[in-house]
Amino acid sequence: MDMKMFCYQCEQTLGGKACTKAGVCGKDADVAALQDLLIHNLKGLAFYGQKLIERGEKINPTIQTLMVDGVFSTLTNVNFDPERFFTYNTKAEAYKQELRALVGNIEGEVPSAALYQSPNRVDLMIEDGLKFGIMADPSMNEDIRSLRELLIYGLKGVSAYAHQAAALGKTNEEVNNFFFKALNETLKDDLTVDALFGLNMELGQENLKVMELLDSVHTGTYGHPVPTKVAVTKKKGPFIVISGHDLKDLQMLLEQTQGTGVNIYTHGEMIPAHGYPELKKYSNLVGNYGGAWQDQQKEFDNLPGCVLMTTNCIQKPRPSYEDRIYTTSVVGWPGIKHIEQVDGNKDFSAIIKHAIELGGYTEDEEEKNILVGFGHNTTLSHAGAIIEAVKSGAIKHFFLIGGCDGAKPGRNYFTEFAENTPQDTVILTLACGKYRFNKIDFGTVAGLPRLLDVGQCNDAFSAIKIAVALAEAFECDVNDLPLSLVLSWYEQKAVAILLTLLSLNIKNILLGPSLPAFVSPNVLQVLVDKFNIRPTTNAEADLQSILG
Ligand code: SF4
Ligand code: SF3
């Protein structure tokens, strides 16, 4: 097949099929090849790692980190820098050889990915990467390919959360080992649909574990989120906007900007940070700036302050702000300033100095607020009142409306859906999809705000905990609760969360705005038959069909 690249891992993929010349996200064919090579090298690494794990041996933590961060770097909108992929590939090759030596003699067949030796020049890496893409074997059964890629994309989602927990010093060995198991399985040439389906369900459970770990490390480090008003308006003075998911980066930045006069605004998925007692205590955490990730080019244009991108989702910086946007951790864009961690610390002095030089806003805007901080602890502290309200009929239904946001016009669906939910219903929301409606005043029901912000995408764990607690209180199955899930997807963390929900046998999920290109018709049919998963249609009709 004559194509420069093949990527269909996100919702934005060209024509709903695949990006084959350049990514709609801004990924060029060279970076796509370097990412394909990295996945190939990590599969080879996984082969030897899995042999050691099966012998009961432990994988060296540095290699675990490379595995997790390497997979994460290929997630949509994380890293676009060929040099960084050169480094990841070089390390993956070195660690592959290291584990290969530890494994020693192998009986039976060794897959070609394990025997492959990665070159040490970027142009040769790009050449090789072209051979190892998703379509490398055009004769592969499309359902097998679909489930194999579903597994790899799910793994990308898990890697984001494992990375985030590791930033706060916590890892889970079973979860880390699953990376080796899953990637090793993809090398087998006797893959069956059933085995791959089972692995995808296993991935859902591993993702649940890592989201639970992240919940415990977030709440353990920063306390349980509490209801908190967040200003969505500007304050006079120099500032830094911090985006992404990494609370540790935010905390270090807040610490280092204390007393400098630099205000900090959260952006995108960082907004739930305002609810954590150990983060909200910083007086220079002044508010939230802008909408979801896809609005950044417009919103950062000519910004009189700096931006720090901590995880996904970065878009091509415009010339008007490319000098004032910084990346850290796995995030990268060629030519953009990158802040490395040294001995567990990050030095933000350059970005702070830069923000002061830019001067910031010249006056205060009239303050407007929204409310965050309804994680499982706070929401379930109202469990008694919620249960009473359901029994008395004051609350008729719960909706979980959330997930990833994106640029497609069809995403107004989620705004319309939320706007049309009746007054006697509660909306739980999470992830950046909330920006479609989080500035609307939904009023209250049974003494509670109708819109409860549960947190980041990984706080899907909180939503699951709330649902399970309600099901226990009503002595029913989660599927029998008056609860409907209306989820938007864009990138691969949403894939991991969806697999978690399916692995918990949660049915009747509405998924939109379009279905993944990598899900083949047969695989979709299985998901429909087993879980009654449905594509979103139009907000009014879907709402009607739920509420009857
Ligand atoms: Fe296309 Fe999405 Fe892949 Fe980017 S990540 S190349 S937009 S499918
Ligand atoms: Fe949004 Fe990227 Fe997915 Fe954490 S920030 S949810 S799209």
Automatic annotation (TrEMBL):
It is an enzyme of class 1 (oxidoreductase). Its EC number is 1.7.99.1. The modification Cysteine persulfide is found at C404. It catalyses: A + NH4(+) + H2O = hydroxylamine + AH2 + H(+). It holds the Pfam family Prismane. GO terms for biological process: response to hydrogen peroxide. Binds 1 [4Fe-4S] cluster. Binds 1 hybrid [4Fe-2O-2S] cluster. It is found in: Cytoplasm. The keyword Cytoplasm applies. Keywords: 4Fe-4S, Cytoplasm, Iron, Iron-sulfur, Metal-binding, Oxidoreductase. [4Fe-4S] cluster binds at C7, C10, C19, C25. GO terms for molecular function: 4 iron, 4 sulfur cluster binding; hydroxylamine reductase activity; metal ion binding; peroxidase activity. GO terms for cellular component: cytoplasm. Gene3D superfamilies: 1.20.1270.20, 3.40.50.2030. Hybrid [4Fe-2O-2S] cluster binds at H245, E269, C313, C404, C432, C457, E491, K493. InterPro entries: HCP/CODH (IPR004137), Hydroxylam_reduct (IPR010048), Prismane-like_a/b-sand (IPR016099), Prismane-like_sf (IPR011254), Prismane_a-bundle (IPR016100). Its cofactor is [4Fe-4S] cluster; hybrid [4Fe-2O-2S] cluster. Belongs to the HCP family. NCBIfam families: hybrid_clust (TIGR01703), PRK05290.1 (NF003658). Catalyzes the reduction of hydroxylamine to form NH(3) and H(2)O. This is Hydroxylamine reductase. The gene is hcp.
